[in-house]
Amino acid sequence: MSDSSPVPSSVVLDVWCELQCPDCRQALDDLRALRARYGDRLDIRLRHFPLEKHKHAFAAAQAAEEAAEQGQAWPYVEAVLGRVEQLDRAGEPFLVEAARELGLDAEEFDTALIDGRHILIVDADQAEGKAIGVTGTPTYVIGGERLDGGKSQEGLRERVEEIADRLLAESA
Questions:
Q1: Which residues contact 98 (CB under 8 A, 6 or more apart)?
Q2: For residue range 50-63, what is the model confidence (pLDDT) as tens digits?
Q3: Would residue 37 be called left, alpha or beta, if left means φ above 0 and alpha means ψ between -120 and 50 degrees?
């Protein structure tokens, strides 16, 4: 039995991000603005691309996956990115504390970081990112186009909006 009601079309924006990256923190304002403008019509997906130069980035990516499992992916990402310096200094204990502050199950975060249950997701994202040419963060992929925000974020939101508007118009 098929449901004949029209499915609202949405466009996917993959955001290759690293939670110890100051450039990704700057990108949060753009992401908030895009969310406000498009709502459900733009599906913003967090993709992990931890950089080797940031020693806590891989653990932070795993913690973000645990936050997603507990239904708080973006609030957690924003909480951690908003305090990059604390993550630099404190590492994994800060990741657990940030979860506790959001009312998440901090013990489960601690366990997830120890047992590595989210490592495969992070590794798969990183491998896919490398395969499509991601070299730094943030990098956006929308409509098959890659926009590198690691070098400069100037004009990127406008470019994402242009592509999103075109794709939404085509699917209407």
A1: 63, 76, 79, 80, 83
A2: 999 999 999 999 99
A3: alpha
